[in-house]
Amino acid sequence: MIIKNKKAMLLGFISSITAVVILTTSLQADNADRQDVQSSKLESYLKFTKIVQLVEEQYVDDINASDIINNALKGMLSNLDAHSSFMDAKETKELQVQTHGEFGGLGITVGMKDGALTVIAPLEGTPADEAGIKSGDIILKINEQATMGMTIDKAVSIMRGKPKTAIELTVVRKGEMKPLKIEIIRDIIEIQSVYSKKIGEDILYMRVTSFDQKVVQGLQKGISDNPKKKGIVLDLRNNPGGLLNQAIGVVDMFVKEGAIVSQKGKIPEENLVYNASEANTDMQTPLVILVNGGSASASEIVSGALQDHKRAIVVGNKTFGKGSVQVVMPISQTEALRLTIARYYLPSGRTIQAVGVTPDIEVSFGEIKKAEEGISIKEKDLQKHLESELEKVDGKKEKKDEKEDKTIITEEQLYKDAQLKSAVDILKALMITKQ
User: Fold this and answer.
1) Per its UniProt record, what InterPro entries does this chain match (predicted)?
2) Considering 197, 322, 421, 428, which one is annotated as catalytic?
3) List 137, 153, 252, 308, catalytic entry
4) Where in the chain is the domain with CATH 2.30.42.10?
5) Residue 313 has what pLDDT?
6) At what angle do helices 215-224 and 244-252 cross, to 10 degrees?
């Protein structure tokens, strides 16, 4: 019995020593890994300092360390992604003007797609829109300056300028044999973000051009002003996005529970989930959303979230695919860092970034051709019809020109927009099913 106990004690002692050795080895390995990381980091910093010193001392032109480091920071941030950037004093001031003040601009939102400066969307009613700039146009030159290798911030700063001054964009457009040169006159950009119109007696058409701070308010007003509506078409085509809280608010108008959108980043504090609330939610009215390649960011959150919740049918073309979160962090009194810190995810867990939202029903933009109708006379219309034809010949009665009602979308206008016509047809089917 004593011998057995001694054996047990010996085995326990050996096990303890083994555990201590394993733990010690593990700690040593962790410490070694940390030391390797710290050593590698130190070597990288020393390499950077050495290169800055060599450039400052031996580069053919005079250049100071501050300029070298600023250029290095710009290169480093631009290589992370298209939306991260280091902003020097001039660029930081321009951002403040863009955010808070008046400026002359073109009214386009641009992004990087496959390394090319691409028009996400022209804003409705702006100089770019009126000059004929289209979503998907690739900007080759701004005046005579090539955009290859140019950052988005740099391009935007060149396009912005004094109102009533001219600028020329050279663009490549799908379907065109050669680049197009388009002259645009800069102007103060004033945007109406929400337009409401009627289609027939019971369909409400609402177009959102960008997600500014009054979008939810504008949509709520459009809905309350049309109590007889039985269906809604929400047009987000060529909408480049905007404020996240407005996108969340729009989805919350039509969804009463569950996630609307989430964001995930490296820092735990940036991992957020935005949920719907039940208050003032319309779960009954059939809803169709229109999107295209110019629908980005907030537009993709709205269309993708409502698609995931099975609350809306999405019609049109695949969206742009901008689903990242940027913050501006001051690093001095005059300089700032714009950094991508997270990505957006839709309720189903899918990402928007570089993927976009695929419509439930894909429809290309274009005009629907109608066959010419022949003369069709019914018995009851014969006399009246002949009288009207005689009046046309004799000129006895002249019809007064009727002013176009901009609050109504006519059948003729519908046939000029195949995507909208498809959306309306789908909505009518949903309305019949609901009845």
Assistant:
1) ClpP/crotonase-like_dom_sf, CtpA/B_N, PDZ, PDZ_6, PDZ_sf, Peptidase_S41A, Tail-specific_protease
2) 322
3) 308
4) 102-188
5) 98
6) 30
Looking at domain 194-362, its CATH class is alpha beta
Closest CA to 267 of 348, 188, 339: 339
- Architecture of the domain spanning 102-188: Roll (2.30)
Q: Is 297 a catalytic residue?
A: yes
pLDDT score of 224: 96
Q: What pTM was estimated for this model as a whole?
A: 0.73
The phi, psi pair for 300, rounded to 5°, reads: -75, -35
For residues 285 and 317, what is the distance between their CA atoms, to the nearest angstrom? Answer: 24
Q: Supply angle C-alpha 150, 156, 160, rounded to 5.
A: 135
- Residue 322 known to be catalytic: yes
Annotated catalytic residue: which of 297, 299, 303, 422?
297
Query: In the chain, where does the domain assigned CATH 3.90.226.10 lie?
Result: 194-362
